[in-house]
Amino acid sequence: MVESKHSWKAWLYLAPAIVLLLVFTVWPIINTVRMAFLDDYSGLEEVGGTVFNFGVGNFIKVVQYQRFLDCLKTTSILCIATVPISTILALLIAVALNSIKVLQKFLQTVFFLPYVTNSIAIGMVFAAMFNIVGSFLGTENELVVTAGVINNVIEFFGGTHVNWINVGSTYAANIFVMVVYIVWNALPFKILILLGGLQSINKQYYDAAKVDGTSKGRILRKITVPLLSPMLAYVVITGFIGGFKEYTSIIGIFGETMGPADASGRLNTMVGFIYDALASNKQGRASAAALILFGIILVVTLINLQVSKKKVHY
């Protein structure tokens, strides 16, 4: 415990961190709230001397925008679809890895590699896999179409190729590609958390279950999942928070158009809407959208915490 007469030394050591937090965290939050409640606020206009009225006009306009509602719909679909799938897959993979003794460390490294790889680079790889490319070859300038890796696999098994992300593709096909990418990108972190939780479970529970002749499925449902519930609750909550902030994955696959060339902005998300508002010098609306996003994430998190109180066993 620091004596009171030397407490100034502690504050001196903390001062650099406190100053950085105040400048780059606390003040931006306060300023965001301020701009959100100034109707039609614009930074350039404020510099020019324009005075803005206090009100909730920014929130009303944001909610009334059809584009914002489309962004909210896309964000919600991606979040609701990816979090359960990625959590279940991560649990099954973590259980499998925990039971494998040979090459366990190597497999853990392989599964963790996507987590340390740039999201934009991964998105470009996925775009190439789902892309349909046409090129002119030969002296007669003949058009040769390459269906892409995924479509080649589909055709190998007797199916027909699908237009996943190119011009003329459907919204459902675009969403499917994004769900596959987001789930794959989210697995490493969840596997790491769940695997750590599995390795901390007392082995006596499993030994007792084996003596009783309990099936592996029942062991998973009655022992592993309940004892792993705190970690599951954590990855679900963080998964929903990350899902509502989805943006870079869509940029990685579709680029700045946030969708196919003939449907620009189709897959735009709430974070993308905020960036677009900032780019058009509408900081007030961007701030209002950011606060709405914060409110949605807060409500979803509180619901998850409330549910976890009844389902989580500590």
Throw out a few tags for this protein.
314 residues; mainly alpha; MetI-like fold; 2 domains; two-stranded antiparallel sheet; 2 strands; globular
Structure, described:
By secondary structure, this protein is mainly α. It folds into two domains: 59-130 and 166-311, MetI-like (MetI-like fold); 132-159, no CATH class. It is built from 14 helices and two strands; from the N terminus they run ααααααββαααααααα. It has helices at 7-36, 43-47, 57-64, 66-99, 104-112, 119-130, 149-156, 171-199, 204-211, 216-227, 229-244, 248-254, 270-279, 283-311; strands spanning 133-137, 142-146. It has a two-stranded antiparallel sheet with strand order 1-2. The model has no long low-confidence stretch (mean pLDDT 85).
Helix proportion of residues, in percent? 55-70%
CATH top level of the largest domain is Mainly Alpha
- SS-based class: mainly alpha
What is the H level of CATH, i.e. the homologous superfamily of the largest domain? MetI-like
**Could you give the order of the helices and strands?**
HHHHHHEEHHHHHHHH
Fold-level CATH name of the largest domain: MetI-like fold
Span between termini: 31 Å
**How much is the radius of gyration in Å?**
25 Å
Give me the count of strands. 2
Number of domains: 2
- What is the CATH architecture term of the largest domain? Orthogonal Bundle
**Mean pLDDT, all residues:** 85
* Shape annotation: globular
